[in-house]
Specification:
alpha/beta; 11 helices; 402 residues; five-stranded mixed barrel
Length: 402
């Protein structure tokens, strides 16, 4: 510091500015300043330039690239912020300026503001459009998962996939899901899985946590990787209430990692359930039909006798038929004999022999063998033949009379 007598002599500009620089920079090493951003610019150098102002004053500020890279949000004109830094003097112009180490928006947190800014940006580009959403394959055979190999999320997803749908290949792309390098690894994992043949679906996610823990899934590089993925992507980050930029870009947002696993095999489960239902509907009539056929077979089996037994029964039946035939024949013969006897008796009653037996005879003329019924039919001396009941007589007519 200079004594009062020293100010009696003129100072050079540079000397004055140097004295001011020493004074200011020694006394304002760490300050917090709140104000509204104006004149913001972000040139290619990566440094950020802005003016902080309030109703009555303003001051220039700069945030160098090394600090600016750590900002989660992009400063905007009109944004009310609280800045942390030191006061410095820009010697070339002799101006005061704030050299900022950090910046937080007032009201809205820095992460939330960054989230909202990136969301607006990507939405304006159409990355959230429903028209971009692709349907998931109904029956995936190979599923790629981008997540931590040691987290609870991968265990939950594998448990669900193993329990709900066996036979699906799972390719795990191990990445960090938290920290500064996480976003780049996740984006690289998505790209790597897209180079693997026959990957039908990619699940990207992790378990729950704070907004800072989940921040990797709010990074633009992850959102761009999901949007560029030829394979449909399912976002499964945190719990049901956690929404990330990845959820908006993905083809499907699952509320939890376990739910993501269930969703990708949902159609398979529905189909299996439908098939089970159809099988149950088919089994019932088939079982009834089978029981009926079994009953018929059993009936036929019971009716189907062994050959020896069947021969024995046939012989038994043959004996029965023979016995009945003989009985019928005997009865018929008896009846025939009785009828024959009856007819013989009737015939005997009509036979001339019966008449001859009662003492009558029959007279035949010898010369022509005709029966003589009147005396006039013969003449005296004519020879006759007389038939008796037993034997015949020869006679000669001595005399006739009428």
């Amino acid at each position: 510091m200079r004594n009062a007598d020293d100010f009696s002599r003129p100072l050079s500009v540079s000397r004055l500015v140097l004295l001011l620089q020493e004074l200011v920079e020694d006394n304002f090493v760490q300050v917090l300043v709140e104000g509204e951003i104006s004149n913001f610019s972000a040139p290619a150098s990566g440094h950020l330039y802005l003016t902080l102002k309030d109703a009555e004053a303003q001051i220039r500020a700069v945030m160098f690239r090394s600090q600016a890279r750590r900002l989660r949000f992009v400063p905007e004109n009109g944004l009310q912020v609280v800045c942390r830094g030191r006061v410095a003097v820009y010697r070339q112009r002799g101006e005061l300026q704030l050299v900022l180490d950090g910046m937080e928006p007032q009201g809205l947190g820095g992460l939330q503001l960054a989230f909202e800014q990136l969301k607006r940006k990507l939405e304006a580009e159409g990355l959230f459009a429903e028209a971009r959403k692709r349907p998931l394959p109904a029956f995936p055979r190979r599923i790629g998962i981008v997540t931590s190999p040691t987290g609870a999320a991968i265990r939950d997803m594998l448990n669900v996939l193993r329990r709900r749908s066996g036979g699906i290949d799972v390719l795990l792309c191990p990445v960090r899901v938290q920290g500064e390098e996480a976003a780049a690894e996740i984006a690289r994992g998505i790209a790597d899985l897209n180079r693997v043949e026959d990957v039908d679906i990619i699940i990207v996610g992790r378990g729950g946590g704070s907004m800072e823990d989940l921040w990797a899934f709010n990074e633009e590089v992850v959102a761009r990787a999901i949007a560029a993925s030829p394979t449909p992507v399912v976002s499964a980050v945190g719990h049901e209430t956690d929404w990330t930029i990845a959820d908006f870009v993905a083809d499907l947002r699952a509320p939890t990692p376990s739910a993501a696993a269930e969703l990708v095999v949902k159609n398979r489960l529905e189909l299996e359930s439908h098939i089970d239902h159809l099988l149950m509907r088919l089994q019932r009539p088939l079982r009834d039909r089978l029981r009926l056929l079994q009953a018929r077979v059993e009936g036929l089996r019971r009716r189907l006798l062994p050959p020896k037994e069947r021969l024995r029964l046939q012989n038994q039946r043959l004996d029965e038929l023979r016995r009945r035939l003989l009985a019928a024949w005997g009865l018929t013969d008896t009846r025939r004999r009785e009828r024959l006897a009856l007819l013989s008796a009737r015939l005997d009653l009509l036979s001339p022999l019966q008449t001859l037996g009662r003492g009558y005879s029959i007279v035949f003329r010898e010369r022509d063998g005709k029966i003589v019924r009147r005396a006039g039919e013969v003449a005296a001396g004519e020879k006759l033949r007389v038939r008796l009941h037993r034997g015949e007589l020869r006679a000669v007519v001595e005399k006739t009379s009428s």
